[in-house]
Fold these 2 entries.
Entry 1:
Amino acid sequence: MTDSPDLTLKQVIDECLQWMIFSGYTLETYNNYRSELNAFLSFINRKQIHWDDIFTLDTLKDFQKSRKAAPAVRRLFRYLFEQKRIHQSIDPPKQRLPDLYEDYLSYYHQTRQVPSIRITRIRKVLRAFHDYLERYNIKPASIRIEQIDAFLAEFFTAFSPNTRQTYRFYLRGFLKYLYYPGGIIGKDLAPLVIGPRQFAQNTPPKFFRPHEIQRLFDSFELSSAKDLRNYAMVHLSYGLGLRPDEISLITLDDVSFTQSELTLTTRKNGRPVKLPIPENIMKALAAYIIGSRPKSSHRRLFLNLAAPHRPICATSVGQHITECIRKAGLPGTAYWLRHTYAQNLLETGVSIYEIKEMLGHEYIDSTEKYLHVHMKLMRRVLFDEEL
């Protein structure tokens, strides 16, 4: 990085805002954070603070004199620390949980390849759960569903319905781990942790129309290593409906060019699967491997183009795909391509149960949230009408 705070800070602010889009922050939060970060950029320029002195607690406190809590700047600091772009964290050291919880967090991080912010949120729930069990002298091995319900009733007091739903999901993951593979409890309590279904609050997933997909692929020039790599990623996301974390975990050994087949060993539902690879995706993968992939001992398919050539994480995959979408002048994120894949399957007559398996969902409810009433399909079925 250069010494110019205007250039470097603006660059990392843009990266952080892009990461927020991929991570699912609401539009209202995104706009509020963007406004605050722009004010922070002006503050740094006005004070002429050197890059090495920007990301310190003293600078944050100075900025907060006129901005109160400054959550966006704190989020920027954490983002850069998590990306190892700065070496000093503004957060106090995390208090270690007992080994059972730390083992689960390590297991979850390794198997899911999720951003560290999710691990932080899960840690928050597990910290509260552990404190509750300690207070009432309850051993994890003897936990009962009534005690879990009592904990949630107490813990949820200050949270919105959407946050409660997320925290239930985090706790279910831990309970499932206690049952298997942890072997701590003899019954899987995760399915019993349920809450009221939410309808009006949920925002339906978005998807692209055919002309927008054509516009996206037409925007690639394929004249650089980065374009070839991102082109292959977009094909996997759109043509096979893969999540960013699934794309990041693909190895060279998972791709069979002779069989035109992709093996996914790590899926969210825990069931490995072999997927046929269409010809256009095979060509995109071959073009990337031959013309763009750096020479490396790493077996992961997608690597950083700059040395050292390490495997790309799931967050970066999502950011690269989203960047391609925005470059084509389209709204949306990497997950819109996955939603589009589901819509395309629905329109071609594939049943929702088959779509569930192809998307790698564990529950049919997850698949239903991906699918919209397709106006073109509805008119064809109900009115024998073509649009």
Entry 2:
Amino acid sequence: MYKITVGILGMSCNMCESHVNDAVRRAFDVKSVKSSHRAGRTVIIAERAIPEREIRSAIAATGYEFASWQCEPYEKQGLFAKLFG
């Protein structure tokens, strides 16, 4: 799994976050997506690494400005991961 952190400029409220989250879910098969207008970022958890250009295109379609992209391997943390990992 991968954790993709995308910097996004222009989000100013919870509806902006929802708009971006919905666009990401429509464009990609993701496990989770969470946006924060205060932090100016969206964090995506997905099975595959989503290329920067694909995310840039999906964000551009929302009207918000793509600012940055970071992709790193992700390992789920939790009780079972700690017990059986």
